[in-house]
Design goal:
By secondary structure, the chain is of the alpha+beta class. Helices cover 21% and strands 41% of the residues. A hairpin with a 2-residue loop joins strand 5 and strand 6.
């Protein structure tokens, strides 16, 4: 039986409708992290996005979906269930990549420029980004 981890994160959009990607461990990814004891899943999603990006005053939107993936860490098989929320930020905010989590850079990406980012990410990230744009009827 794999060890189970619950995580939460978000697809953060700005006033221009761009979404935030982070470059971490050689791939483009979305901000997310593990649930702390006593914390709700929506609280975790907002906290992790704040910690990994430096953004403040994040407006939490609806649940986009839940993804599951497996990986091996220290010879232990882990099943990670991630809850993804739509989020919004307003105003000009400075992005601060959380270097302790190996986040090298943060970039706002418009929908028509997504392809290079999706070509260099994980299957569950592609799945949730496509679901986000389908749900928001923003795909051209």
């Amino acid at each position: 039986m794999p060890e189970q981890i619950i995580a939460a994160g978000g697809i953060v959009s700005n006033e221009k409708g761009e979404i935030l990607f982070q470059f971490r461990r050689g791939k483009w990814d979305l901000p997310k992290g593990k649930l702390d004891e006593g914390e709700s899943i929506p609280e975790c999603a907002v906290r992790e996005v704040e910690e990994e990006t430096g953004l403040k005053n994040i407006q939490l939107g609806e649940l986009i979906g839940v993804t599951t993936h497996f990986y091996i860490e220290r010879n232990i098989e882990i099943e990670k269930e991630t809850h993804w929320y739509a989020m919004k930020v307003t105003g000009e905010q400075q992005l601060v990549p959380q270097v302790e989590e190996d986040i090298e850079k943060l970039e706002w990406v418009s929908e028509h420029k997504l392809q290079p980012y999706l070509a260099d990410t994980y299957p569950n990230i592609i799945e949730i980004v496509e679901r986000y744009f389908d749900d928001h009827n923003q795909l051209n």
